[in-house]
Amino acid sequence: MSIIYKNYNPDILETIANLSNDEVFTPPKLANEILDLLPKEVWSDSSITFLDPAVKTGIFLREIASRLIDGLAEEIPDLQERVNHILTKQVFGIGITELTTLMARRTVYCSTTANGEFSICTEFDDDKGNIIFPKTEHTWDKNGRCKFCGANKDSYGGGADRESYAYPFIHDNFEKEFGNMKFDVIIGNPPYQIGDGGGTGDSARPIYNNFIKKAKEMNPKYISMIIPSRWMKGGKGLNSFRKVMINDKRISHISDYQNAKDLFPTIDLDGGVCYFLWDKKHNSKLNYIYHDTKGAVLKSDRFLKNKYTSTVLRDYRQLSIVEKTTGKKSFEEIVSFRNPFGFSSDLFNNPERYKDVSFKDEKEDGYSIVYGVEGSKGGSKRVYKYINNSSITKGKCSVDKYKLFFSKAYMTTATVPPEIIEGVPGTLSTETFLKIGDFNTESEMNNCLDYIRTKFFRALLFYNRHSLNISKSSFELVPLQDFSKSWTDEELYKKYKLTQEEIDYIEDNIDPME
Fold first, then answer.
1. What's the mean per-residue pLDDT of the chain?
2. 13 pLDDT higher than 70
3. Which H or E element spans position 193?
């Protein structure tokens, strides 16, 4: 760190980075690892400009300024002149809230006002400097959604006492503040999601993709951002974004962490986290560094796109296995879409919503078993009850078939799913489960269950997971088998001609099912 920041600004940002789950603050060590991706020559270039479009603590701007202070010492020998040039001509930021804007000014200028008595820059004539937070409003469409970020008007259209989370960078409300100047490097840790007002209270949609899209539109030389890794496999509304990223050969580097706690110890971020470097002049393979949960660090030079799946295979060791196992028919073909019988997960918690449903605790003629969950989040348990057949209006042809009920949600780090329910004739489920089948015989159902229990099956399912929720597409990489017979791992390894190294990789990383 430059001497000027050692003298003026004691480094408390390592502590601040661990204070909150509401905003994911970037630790100084991580900020510097990301800055190290940029070519060394940028730090001795007095003309290059940097923008953090989602300023929180100001750590990126501080470390950028510090590197420039050292790198420009020969070109601009006078320290004060050098600091003034860097902070007025090269380093810019846009706050995500008024509070983080003040925090960033304190971090970068050593004063919450850029022109204050204790500011290390002596050339600003206003209190904002180059770290701004312009007043921004959402732009609502006829459906009550913001056309820029997708925010829900009911949640974010409140009064003056509520934070609107209308981020200036993606709402086209900052260019005039900076005189419509061009930025060479756009770098930061954008907000990850915004509540969308749908479903439960935790329902949210990604928003970091909007920051990346806007950054590309500005045509800089480099873009680098920290984002959740979930985009590589799925994520609400991210299909087109994933396709663009996978096909963008200007991405020169990705560091990908399966466990987000490796970078952010105090937060839970299902699916992991990554940071990347987008280089305008790059047009070839990228350097991909993958950190798995067991501490392995895997480096490869490759393209993100592959011919077997529309998602990213994050661990390159999986690619050779997928190459051998992906065939004409996928297990996905026999997996239902969500809510196969039309009963939501709240069937047992809110029975009053289902006026046509009659519940029984014991079997009666004209009634079928429905499996679901009862209780609140975190304390719910699996239960079953009997409901009248006349209330079943969806999936009726499956009720009297053999099938399997597979839990729709479990931890992404788990390779063993919750207990799979054998759905004999006369059974159905709420949307808590996906339906696998139908099968004509009990033997076919049991043979399919044996297949699911193999490490081979669960490895290929695990390779394609991205979040807590399981969907039909999660099974895309799993090949479909003939269920007139049972299957073992040994038979599957032989059928697909896996090498001993590939077998060992599966055996070492997939837990056994008891």
1. 89
2. no
3. strand 193-195
Question: What is the distance, to the nearest Å, from the Cα of residue 510 to the centroid of all Cα atoms in its chain?
Answer: 23
What is the 8-class DSSP label of residue 482? -
- Of all residues in the chain, the percent with pLDDT exceeding 90 is 68
- Tell me: the pLDDT tens digits for 169-205? 988 778 788 888 899 999 999 999 876 544 433 457 8
Cα 49 from Cα 2, distance rounded (Å)? 19
Ordered DSSP codes for 392-450 = --SSHHHHTSEEEEEESB--TT-SSPSPPEEE-TTEEE-TTEEEEEEESSHHHHHHHHH
Residue with token string 């015989």: 441
**Is 171:139 a contact under the CB 8 Å cutoff?**
yes
Paired residues of 423 in beta bridges: 403
Looking only at the bridges linking them, the beta strands covering 204-206 and 381-388 are: unpaired
Strands (E), 322-420: 359-360, 367-374, 381-388, 402-407
pTM score, two decimals? 0.81
- Phi and psi for 136 in degrees, rounded to 5? -135, 140
Residues 6+ apart with CB under 8 A from 276: 224, 225, 227, 251, 253, 254, 255
- As a whole number, mean pLDDT of residues 263-281 equals 91
Token code pair at residue 194: 């915004």
Residue ranges per domain, the chain?
1-134+178-189, 137-173, 331-509
